[in-house]
Amino acid sequence: MKILIIEDEQELAQNIADYLSGESYLCEHAATFGQAIDKIESFSYDCILLDLMLPGGSGLEILESLKKQNKQEGVIIISAKNAIDDKVKGLQIGADDYLAKPFHLSELSARVYSIIRRKQFGNSNIVRQNELEIDLLGKTVKVANQVINLTKKEFDLLLFFVGNKNRVISKSALAEHLSGDLADMLDSHDFVYAHIKNLKKKLNEVHCDNHLKTVYGTGYKWEG
Amino acid sequence: MSKLLDKPLKTFTLYALFILACSIPAYYLVVDYIWLNELDEHNEIIRTRMEQGLNDIDIDEQTLAQTLNVWNNVQPGTTIAPALPNDVREDSIYTASKLNIYSDDGEIDRFRGLQTYLNIYGRPYKLTIETNVEEVDETLFAIALITFLFFGFLVLGFILLNRRISGQVWLPFKKTLDKLKDFDLNKQSEVVFDKTDIEEFEELQTVLKQLIQNNASVYLRQKQFSENASHELQTPLALLKSKLDMMLQDDTLSEAQYEKISSLNLPLSRVSRINKNLLLLAKLENQQFDESFPIDLGALIDETTSLLADQAEARDISTVLKIDHQTMVTGNKYLVEIMLTNLLVNAIRHNVSGGAVAIDLTGRVLTISNSGSKPLKEERLFQRFGNASPDNPSSGLGLSIVREICQRYNWKIRYDFKDGLHTFSATF
């Protein structure tokens, strides 16, 4: 699966590429408006990460030209501006998601994952991960046809882990994922532990192997 | 409030009244002076005529005495009588008030008198002439009446003229004012004032135009600044965050290294939070959130509290909600959300373990209270970085943002501490 990273900050683009280059993701990079337009016209991608402020033009124009060409790429805007009007405008023009900088790579990865799944699977929204069968649309999880009753937050967590397979995720990234902007306003991220404990317990109950590993007490990793 | 032109009108009227009132005695004194002068002249003429007349007619002493007697009887204002040569003195002029014997109503009349000595055929005679003068009160009354009549005309004229002038003269001012009322910095519209031929208004318009232009450019620069600052700061922050995430992926990390790296996440989050909040404040001051819609406050509180439920639970804090679901407020939803979140996060983070948060929305008043031990310093509470303290680190901007949002919509926010409860109440 090909991902295009349109970002003028070289190092950030490199980090994103390194993080995402697991699985079957193949990352390409465009640092300017011109490069981005060239790449979009010549190739097609599964997902495009789009920075709005670029040397040579605005990311919104790239988005417009994508839509004009009727391209089906999923687009996630990764903007530093975090201006509400940009967000609304971007989503109106046809971006699929919006992520304000600074973000955790794990958050970005989870969003890329969910966009690619949504685009790829069309009507059938079933994702298979190890022995898990995850229905993205119905928001249900099954192991060997046995439904696991997960709360919304547990389901979110599970998808987050699956989208960051074999990667270590810090507790603060999980906290931010679960409570968005609120996470950094509160000192305690202990609630994350409670949700993970519950998720593990429910997976254990249906005899799912333990893929969820704790790393040194503050990080987690889904192995599979 | 009174209109600008009414103020001088009042003063002018009082001044006119003062001047006209002062003119009454002045008129009286002048008129009286002229009058008495004329009468003195008149009396002098009579005297000269009598002296000449009596000296010219050739009569004997007895006939003269008889004639004078008759004269004295028929001319009561004039008496002439022989005088001893020793009695002859200087002429005297006087004014006297006495009973008018020819009038039935016993009124007192004023007379101007001349006492003089004539020389008829070489013998002295004493002549007294008294001429009726207008009385003091009558003269004063007439002058005062006329003066006040004219004062009335003056005031009436003032009022009518004032009305006409204010209508015409202030028209360009009113138009300018209307233009200013319609002006909205957010829309960056240009203000075009109507032409005026009045120097002061022309000057006002020029100054206003400059002021607006300056403000508009400052506004634009501010807006650009907040966008650029955001970009410039958020990108390196994003880089830091991604570097940390990458470092965590290193399999060779020791536990100590891992902990050090992941402990950097918290201060990094705090920096990005402060940055976000500062930008929000800048945008708020720039009035960059102009769309307002009716918001169901109760529903928004429900949403926010459910988002915060995890955190409250983790600290064993119970939440008591009492919400009137009829309350609608008008504002920008994003801002109202931020305001609620900041207040609620405050109530949770500055709470005691096992404490409670009570949220009460009744009518137009929202109160959020939480347990606490001692009152906060109210004067520092809403200041930027006012509550930043090492043992309770926070961005220190939450409440100043709350205040800024409240000010923007003219809502009232206040803080109270009573019976171990910190209470913030917002009146919409």
From TrEMBL, chain A:
The keyword NADP does not apply. The modification 4-aspartylphosphate is found at residue 51. InterPro entries: CheY-like_superfamily, OmpR/PhoB-type_DNA-bd, Sig_transdc_resp-reg_receiver, WalR-like, WH-like_DNA-bd_sf. CDD domains: REC_OmpR_PmrA-like (cd17624), trans_reg_C (cd00383). Residues 124-224 bind DNA. Keywords: DNA-binding, Phosphoprotein, Transcription, Transcription regulation, Two-component regulatory system. Residues 2-116 form the Response regulatory domain. This is Response regulator transcription factor. The lineage of its organism: Bacteria, Pseudomonadati, Bacteroidota, Cytophagia, Cytophagales.
TrEMBL record, chain B:
Keywords: Kinase, Membrane, Phosphoprotein, Transferase, Transmembrane, Transmembrane helix. CDD domains: HisKA (cd00082). It catalyses: ATP + protein L-histidine = ADP + protein N-phospho-L-histidine. The keyword Transferase applies. InterPro entries: HATPase_C_sf, HATPase_dom, His_kinase_dom, HisK_dim/P_dom, HisK_dim/P_sf, TCS_sensor_his_kinase. GO terms for molecular function: kinase activity. The chain crosses the membrane at residues 12-30, 140-161. Residues 228-428 form the Histidine kinase domain. Its EC number is 2.7.13.3. It comes from the Bacteria. This is histidine kinase. It comes from Imperialibacter roseus.
